[in-house]
Amino acid sequence: MTMFHFFNCAILTFGPHAVYYSATPLSEYDTLGTSIKAALVYLGTALVKLVCLATFLQVSENDGFDPYQELLKALIGFIDVAGLYFALTQLTHRNISQNHKFQAVGLGWAFADSVLHRLAPLWVGARGLEFTWDYILQGLEANANLVLSISLAALGSLIWLRKNKPKTLIPIIYACAGIVATMPSITSYLRRGLGWHFPKVVGFELFTSLVMAFISWQLFSACQRPST
């Protein structure tokens, strides 16, 4: 029963990445190499973030919300944006379109994040004798992160790769990218500052991911239209 619970949670956490790859044109254009490269860039970015967090952050004695520490975390979190910029602009990709490139990069980015942050807790905790909803919620959180990662990659591709953007949309693109990039700090404030419980935070992440995905899709579609 414990292994059954583990496999269910693992499928919920990692399955949507495989489904997204196989159900979209990414599999037809063989973009797996691009996703793997993006995942490796994420791992390098995570290592740099870990060193920065260990160097600049102080160990807190309580679990309360510290505005200064959270601001520092948010600034360090923008290293992810730098890593995403490198993955989108500096890596060599196959002859794939901009549409497929940002999806492949976002998919690899999200999968690496799930493996790094959720695989070990799943293996240790989900096989326990006592049933808990926490690991199912972590799987749902991984799904939200998948959507947010692809949305951020789409917005990043508009910022760095799309040159002929409508000028009226540029502030909206940057604002949406800033919101998605600071989501870890926003959810941290909800948990520690406002005292939200984990299910409520996950619900917020799922809702926000769907909203940002819709906005990103609309912005990407608007920038694809020929200018008049």
UniProtKB/TrEMBL annotation:
Pfam family, one: DUF2053
Keyword Transmembrane helix: yes
Alphabetic keyword roster: Cell membrane, Endoplasmic reticulum, Membrane, Transmembrane, Transmembrane helix
One CC-aspect GO term: endoplasmic reticulum membrane
Highest taxon of source: Eukaryota
Cellular localization per UniProt: Cell membrane; Endoplasmic reticulum membrane
Transmembrane stretches, start-end: 39-59, 71-92, 104-124, 144-161, 168-190, 202-220
Record-linked InterPro entries: TMEM147 (IPR019164)
Keyword ATP-binding among UniProt keywords: no
Membrane topology reported for the UniProt record: Multi-pass membrane protein
Stated family: Belongs to the TMEM147 family.
UniProt name for this protein: BOS complex subunit TMEM147
Species of origin: Hibiscus trionum
Higher taxonomy: Eukaryota, Viridiplantae, Streptophyta, Embryophyta, Tracheophyta
